[in-house]
Amino acid sequence: MSRQLRPSRAIALVARREFLTQVTKRSFVISNVIILIAIVGGILIASFLSGSDDEDRAKVGLVGDQSLSAVLVATGEAAGNPLEVTGIADPQTARSEVENGDLDVALIPGDGGSVTAITESEIAASLRVVLDSAVASQAQSAALAAQGVDAAQLAETTRSAVVTVEAIDPPDPERGQRIALSTAVVVLLYMQILVFGMYVAMGVVEEKSSRVVELLLSTLRPLQLLWGKVIGIGAVGLAQLTMYGVAGVGTGIATGTLTLGGTAWGTLVGTLGWFVLGFAFFAVLYAATGSMVSRQEDVNSTAMPLTILVMAMFFSAFSAVQNPDGTLSNVLSWIPPFSAILMPLRIAAGVASGAQIAGTIALMLVVTAAMSALAARIYQRSILRMGKTVSWREALVR
Questions:
Q1: Inter-residue contact 72 to 282 (CB < 8 Å)
Q2: pTM
Q3: Measured torsion, CA atoms of residues 270, 276, 279, 285, in degrees rounded to the nearest 10
Q4: Of 225, 222, 229, whose CA–CA distance to 197 is shortest?
Q5: Angle at 340 between CA 306 and CA 232, to 5 degrees
Q6: Cα angle 297, 302, 308; round to 5
Q7: Could you tell me the CATH number of the domain that includes residue 126?
Q8: With 48 labelled, which of 16, 284, 286, 350 sits at a CA distance of 20 to 30 A?
Q9: 189, part of any domain
Q10: Would you place residue 2 in the very low, low, confident or very high pLDDT band (cuts 50, 70, 90)?
Q11: Residue 1 confidence (pLDDT)
Q12: Are residues 279 and 357 in the same domain?
């Protein structure tokens, strides 16, 4: 490299160096393969353990006349407690299958429409309701038929006599998946911003302690080195987050565990965008903290205020997962850098308006630009100062 390099070219070369240094590390490759396997495997296991609808159906055996079978199935479906009804040859076989656990209940029809239910111990309350309703319905149909009443015609006549529920605040049937998406967004953004922010700080102090930075600054301007490092390491974090997101969302949709297809992919894209904003805010500040020390073991002390801020963002967002439209989430989502983790959460929960998204992005960009100017000032004043740790006051005032 030479002094005649254009600023954009110089930054691109530093960014490329940082990117390749990170992604070619054996530990980086192995850890990411393990995490991707864990993500895909965890979703596959969750999908397998959730089972099929048939496994949730109570198994009922019906001895003899099977006319009650259709009524049992229809009543179970209407009650939201579906049954699997099978015909049994005789009462003794029915008892044996109940004892062996092959059936939950065996029904033996008696006189006058009565039915005896054979069970191992007791019948679940929800199943008992279905059985009682089905037997009563069958008995009523038989009684009506004996009186010359057409049961089918009666059912058609009374079909409109139903209760229609009008909820003022209807429940969201996809709330569970939205909470899962929101939780994943919060955890991933927290980890990526914290980990890759520290990578920037450690990279800066490593170059400073080894005197490599003095060689680099003989051909580069300090800000070119700063932004090249931030962009290169940020690109690694963005690529890693993309891999995790695509693997998780893709596997979830493929297995049917995640049914919010469009919402999930939109949430992933939004999360990647907010990672860029959040990382840019913190990375320049982490680079500044790295420039203030000459030993890696001192980084934690200067970076502590940033680490505390990232943790405060995480805990505030995590507490808002169950109520993403609450006052806490609404207020903090307008305050940078909390916007970087609370807005993706609100987007995943489906409670963020377009105006709020645009407004918080604009605020985040303005504040990030201001923090970048501040961090650049600290970096330029501290990067070549060796020996004792530069205090925040010295870095800002002198």
A1: no
A2: 0.73
A3: -140
A4: 229
A5: 70
A6: 110
A7: 3.40.190.10
A8: 350
A9: yes
A10: very low
A11: 41
A12: yes
